[in-house]
Amino acid sequence: MLNVGKIENGIVLDHIEAGKAMLIYHYLHLDREDYQVAIIKNARSNNMGRKDILKVECDPDTLSLDAVALIDPDITVNVIKGGEIVEKKKMTMPKQIVGVLKCHNPRCISSIEQELPHIFFLADPKRKIYRCRYCEEKYSAGEREKWFR
Amino acid sequence: MRHCLTPLDFTTQELDQLFDLAADIEKNPEKYAHACDGKKIATLFYEPSTRTRLSFEAAMMNLGGKALGFAGAAQSSAAKGESVADTIRVVSCFADIAAIRHNKEGAAYVASQFSNIPVINAGDGGHEHPTQTLLDMMTIRQLKGRLNHFTIGICGDLKFGRTVHSLVKTLARYDDIHFVFISPPELRVPDYITDLLDEKGYTYEECIKLEDVITKLDLLYMTRVQRERFFNEEDYVRLKDFYVLNKKLMRRAKNDMYVLHPLPRVNEISVEIDKDPRAAYFKQVQYGVYVRMALILTLLDIHVD
Questions:
Q1: Which of A98, A109, A120, A133 to mutate to test the interface with B (most CBs of B within 10 A)?
Q2: What is the domain class of B131-284 according to CATH?
Q3: pLDDT tens digits for B154-192?
Q4: Is B106 within 8 Å of A138 when comparing Cβ atoms?
Q5: CA–CA distance, B247 with B182 (Å, rounded to integer)
Q6: Which class is A96-147 in CATH?
Q7: Which of A105, A113, A135 sits opposite B83 (nearest CB)?
Q8: Residue A8 burial (CB count, 10 A)
Q9: Which end of chain B has fewer CB within 10 Å, C or N?
């Protein structure tokens, strides 16, 4: 059994579908940060059989978790302060996402306008559909790799 | 500060007020002749246009104001690579209100985020053309006396036609309207439009032949198959003359079925019906000026007693 120690301050993402932790690492842009990160792959889980866990030592208020909600809203987010879990939450679909998804519509103004933030809004919460703020092109979860920045 | 980026920026009550104002402008033009003395509209047209640009400029001049701007991207600093955001920031120093047409979708929204003056979307790619919808609705209201309880046929290019999408989305806020979509299979109305109608409980039907449905229509909105939206010349040539509205078809239509078209028309409406009293497409152009005058007054918050 692998053991990874507690973190003092940061975020622990639990109940990640087995094999998906690297995706979340990538889409949270953790490779660009100096945080200490531990990825546990295929840990045993009573409910899920197997799961991944991601531990990030950082100031919890600085990490934007919008990408997590897009990838899998069933992930549990544990906020750690002083070595203790101070908050446990399930992600909800954010009403607006900035800088996570990139619009690939060649007819969209975001394809040519300099330094324009890529913004998607939750157009249909029931069907979990996001649309580009500018051109209203639909974000498709099935083509995730194409849409994430 | 308000902008007009889509017709949904206005509630139905606000639209009624806008149309009432436009109707008053039609009846009493002299009352409004100096409402915008000293004001300027900037018409920023990155894409070619005749009717829309001239209509905005005429609207402002009819209100006593002036117009300035450019009629093509090559004539503007866009040719030097200036962003929409920077352009509107600069233009905000020269004018009181701006109308922008751009080939990229969302351009008017970007302008509104960086502007110190009201922005009107005069058409952004294949996305929206709100003032066309406003004048379409004004025309329907003036001809039919109401904006509900009718069957409207929408014919032609329903896939790329921004005026179609905008009109359907806006009409789907009024009661008891039945939509009949007439198009070749390749140019069907997009799913997000029919999804919206399903969600709101509107009835609609889709068909290919105009002659099969013309007898039941109270209004017929014809559209051009737009060459500029096709990537492939062959597809365009195959579809461009799919529908031709002529005298023979009009004989089968109701006596009070009006024909609308956002113009320019090519072959889809034969010139032989131009003198038919039900041909309303040139009336639309006239109503367009009144609606744009009303819109300018509303966005500039100018009230004339």
A1: A109
A2: alpha beta
A3: 999 898 888 898 899 999 999 999 999 999 888 899 888
A4: no
A5: 19
A6: mainly beta
A7: A113
A8: 12
A9: C
